[in-house]
Target: Glycine sarcosine N-methyltransferase
Amino acid sequence: MAKSVDDLARSEGTGPIDGTADLVAREEQVFGDNPLEVRESDHYTHEYVGGFVDKWDELIDWKKRYESEGSFFIDQLKARGVRSVLDVATGTGFHSVRLLEEGFEAVSADGSPQMLAKAFSNGLTYGGHILRVVHADWRWLNRDVHGEYDAIICLGNSFTHLFSERDRRKALAEFYAMLKHDGVLIIDQRNYDSILDTGFSSKHTYYYAGDDVSAEPDYIDDGLARFKYTFPDKSEFYLNMYPLRKNYMRRLMREVGFQRIDTYGDFQETYKESEPDFFIHVAEKNYRTEEQLSAGYSSAVSTARDYYNSEDADNFYFHVWGGNDIHVGLYQSPDEDIDSASRRTVERMAAKVRITPETRVLDIGAGYGGAARHLARTYGCKVACLNLSEVENARNIEFNRAEGLDELIEVKDGSFEDIPYEDNAFDIVWSQDAILHSGDRERVLEEVTRVLKGGGSFVFTDPMAADGARTSDLGPILDRLHLDTMGSPGFYRRELARLGLQTVDFEDLSEYLPVHYGRVLEVLESREQELSDRIGEDYRNRMKTGLRNWVEAGNAGNLAWGIFHAQS
Model:
């Protein structure tokens, strides 16, 4: 199954695919006449030449890596009862040795013979461990490695060596197949989103912690991240990698079959998207029921859930925002009643789709269920309300029962990132000003597409960043919502098209956004004394500041809002 370490040490070539023989002997990386054109998955085997491998531990610095990483990976594995681990990106053996020290059964695989030879040597040096090394290519992992494992780890930004989507999907499928039924896959990656969008920065703490060693991009575009590694002796080496975006990587893992994926930033569960140097994805193969999926909220959704479940928030939306349709309204006059303006939005959205008593509607982020009651009352259709706040859901159920609509309206606790309904279940998916609360909007749209029948309609509104708006212009709003980004009209058009949904119409109603938030602010300020016993002072003050930020950003043209209508 595996080459012996002697074979690996004597190997004349580094390529597991084509066996090229002379690169290591020359101790020189070869990228050809134009290194920026080298974008093949196999080329990494020629980049880890002997001289680079010998210096790799200077870059990693095992002691500092041990201290900065702490017990994160060990804790993740032990919490799941893991015993056997396949380390598919062994490198020079840091994590393989760590696993053995912690009592796990570990097999160490890598595509670079030079790395495996170094890892074997390090295993003996650090604790006298004999690593079970396997020379393997991820795309044919089941051919090169035998057995099933409780966990597979792929660390050190290694997955970015795969340049084609076909290779990435094939590798993930191989990982999935080698895991036991309840296995876990842990993959890390650089924060390429931040590098691509705002430029490179690094705390030089968690991953590449060696003193007087630098690892910085030499070139970056959407298809290539070329990093230069400079060592104290002035030697320089390069790696060409594919700049994986975080949510793209999460989507690939889901499409392979992983249901639950938690993403950490520099080992932290909560973080701002631009802050971490690295993301760590923890993906579970274990099949989850609808109830289990609903119980496992993402960090962004959990934040929104806690907020809307709070007594202050419930009293604010019920007593100030209208208490029925708690969404952005369409105003005929600046001083119009909030509830009336908000109901007008519902009517405007409903006019864009055909609804009959046979129509099945799903409202994601349903709030108090005002839209559902209007649709059920007006058209006689059945509506499923999916919402994350138990407090709002309780009011929804109470209102439905009072109007005699409870037989037409179902209320379910849950997240729109994992919609607890079967495929092709609904004629219409409806949402008002809720998707912005997700940290993975691509996932929400994928779930919407999944549960939507062929020919069905997706009609929704969402407070968005205007196309071209800078993140810095939205800072106060994002901080208030505990978010790092907002969607935009361009984002939704692109993602809907990617998922095969045709954008029938986007009615741009952005001018109503600052009007609405200004009206809510007026009502709050005018009734503040009367509401002081129901809504805490700190909440009221934060809300007034937040509402003013919405008004200012809307009037400055940095925000967008309107009604999207798309068809499957």
The chain is about 40% helix and 20% strand. The CA atoms of residues 275 and 463 lie 24 Å apart. The longest strand covers residues 179-190. The domain at 300-567 is CATH 3.40.50.150 (Rossmann fold).
